[in-house]
């Protein structure tokens, strides 16, 4: 660990890292420091559950009727600005605006301009349909830090199969527009059973665009109010393995499968109770739902405090304390795949009781090892 950012920056330059790699390295450094200090460095603000798409597997999107059935509507621009001001006063310097579709919030511009005034690095997560020339020009003028666009298909038919809308060409035009504006861009691919027949074509498409992209590791359980069920939408393990094979091929990685008998079983023998979230959630990052609830992350709803009733400082102290005390699967201690499986408490709890391991994650890690995706070290 370096003593300061100057030393780290000098080493990055000596190693000849790109600007993106330097930025990523410095962010990781700051995140480690922030976790130890319980410092809210980054936040995600879910401005609205409304969306102009109707993705079958979405965990948050509410229909207009569902939203009308809610006791309270979305937070006003003034309420969001007050929350963001308090978070900024505690040291938050990077934020993501998301939804639903964040651009649908009626006071998006006001919220965004306030964040620019506070010198907050603002990322926008969007489906891209509303990235008109005028909107991209506005974001460029006011120094958006980056844009993430989720691409749900490789043509109009596959896009409609997932979203209920033929918006593929509109989104592709938006991607081109953002690139021409030289705004940092990331593409997101979300696996689901609706894109299974076209997954290879979609991955080859995003790979050909010469932009940074990532693939979500899986679906998350939809929130209860959406009326959706994960089991109806997720891909099978075999399809996830095939997806990883395609990604390895595109990266030029040669896989060397190994004999299943040579692979150790997943899971350790420790019965000792472990505590503390293993990711940054609630330790250096946070999420605020469209209702104004502060969570370690959006999907860990069992920890949540109402920012319309509590100050951000008080709510953060509570979230940070509970995140440090949160039960983590004891079975992971001593497991040969510890550090390989996702450390996400939400993913574990989707298939097990709190504080215990999700067997599906164990199975997936072991299969990845058998297929050659995981390089074992020291015979372990």
Keyphrases for this structure?
380 residues; nine-stranded mixed beta sheet; two-stranded antiparallel sheet; 11 strands; disordered C terminus
Task: Walk me through the structure.
The chain is of the alpha/beta class and 380 residues long. The protein is built from 13 helices and eleven strands. The protein has helices spanning 5-14, 19-37, 64-68, 77-89, 108-117, 133-141, 156-163, 168-180, 199-208, 237-250, 312-324, 345-349, 359-371; strands at 42-48, 94-99, 121-126, 146-150, 185-189, 212-215, 274-275, 285-288, 293-295, 305-306, 327-328. The strands form two sheets. It has a nine-stranded mixed sheet with strand order 6-5-4-3-2-1-8-9-10, covered by helices on one side. Helix 1 (5-14) runs antiparallel to helix 2. The two termini are 26 Å apart. Mean pLDDT is 90; it is low at 376-380.
Give the total of beta strands: 11
Rg estimate, integer Å: 21 Å
Strand content: 5-15%
Give the strand order of the largest sheet, numbering strands 1, 2, ... along the chain: 6-5-4-3-2-1-8-9-10
Q: SS-based structural class?
A: alpha/beta
Largest sheet: 9 strands, mixed
- Helical percentage: 25-40%
Q: Note poorly predicted spans.
A: 376-380
Note the total helix count. Answer: 13
How would you sum up this structure in a few lines?
This protein is α/β, with parallel strands linked by helices and 380 residues long. The chain is 37% helix and 12% strand.
Which helices and strands occur, and which strands form pairs?
Layout: H1 5-14, H2 19-37, E1 42-48, H3 64-68, H4 77-89, E2 94-99, H5 108-117, E3 121-126, H6 133-141, E4 146-150, H7 156-163, H8 168-180, E5 185-189, H9 199-208, E6 212-215, H10 237-250, E7 274-275, E8 285-288, E9 293-295, E10 305-306, H11 312-324, E11 327-328, H12 345-349, H13 359-371
Parallel strand pairs: 1-2, 1-8, 2-3, 3-4, 4-5, 5-6
Antiparallel strand pairs: 7-11, 8-9, 9-10
Helix pairs in contact: 1-2, 4-5, 9-10
């Amino acid at each position: 660990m370096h003593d300061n950012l100057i030393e780290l920056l000098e080493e990055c330059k000596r190693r000849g890292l790109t600007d993106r790699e330097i930025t990523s390295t410095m962010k990781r450094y700051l995140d480690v420091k922030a976790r130890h200090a319980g410092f809210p460095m980054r936040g995600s603000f879910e401005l609205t559950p409304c969306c102009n798409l109707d993705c079958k597997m979405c965990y948050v999107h509410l229909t207009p009727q569902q939203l009308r059935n809610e006791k309270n509507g979305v937070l006003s621009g003034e309420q969001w600005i007050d929350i963001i001001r308090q978070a900024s006063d505690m040291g938050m310097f990077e934020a993501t605006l998301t939804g639903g579709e964040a651009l649908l919030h009626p006071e998006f511009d006001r919220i965004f301009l306030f964040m620019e005034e506070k010198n907050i690095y603002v990322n926008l997560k969007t489906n891209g349909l509303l990235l008109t020339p005028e909107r991209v020009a506005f974001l460029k003028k006011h120094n958006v830090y980056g844009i993430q666009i989720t691409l749900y298909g490789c043509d109009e038919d596959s896009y409609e199969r997932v979203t209920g809308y033929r918006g593929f060409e509109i989104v592709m035009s938006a991607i081109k527009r953002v690139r021409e504006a030289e705004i940092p861009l990331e593409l997101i691919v979300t696996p689901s059973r609706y894109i299974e027949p076209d997954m290879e074509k979609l991955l080859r498409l995003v790979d050909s665009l010469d932009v940074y992209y990532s693939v979500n590791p899986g679906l998350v359980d939809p929130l209860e109010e959406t009326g959706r069920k994960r089991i109806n939408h997720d891909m099978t393990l075999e399809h996830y393995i095939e997806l990883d094979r395609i990604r390895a091929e595109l990266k030029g990685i040669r896989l060397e499968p190994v004999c299943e008998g040579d692979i150790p079983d997943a899971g350790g023998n420790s019965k000792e109770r472990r505590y503390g979230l293993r990711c940054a959630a609630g330790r250096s990052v946070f999420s605020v739902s469209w209702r104004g609830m502060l969570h370690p992350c959006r999907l860990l709803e069992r920890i949540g405090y109402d920012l319309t009733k509590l100050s951000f400082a008080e709510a953060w102290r509570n979230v940070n304390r509970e995140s440090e005390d949160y039960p983590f699967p004891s079975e992971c201690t001593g497991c040969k795949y510890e550090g390989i499986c996702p450390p996400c408490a939400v993913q574990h709890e989707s298939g097990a009781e709190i504080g215990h391991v999700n067997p599906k994650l164990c199975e997936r890690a072991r299969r990845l090892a058998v297929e050659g995706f995981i390089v074992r070290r020291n015979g372990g």
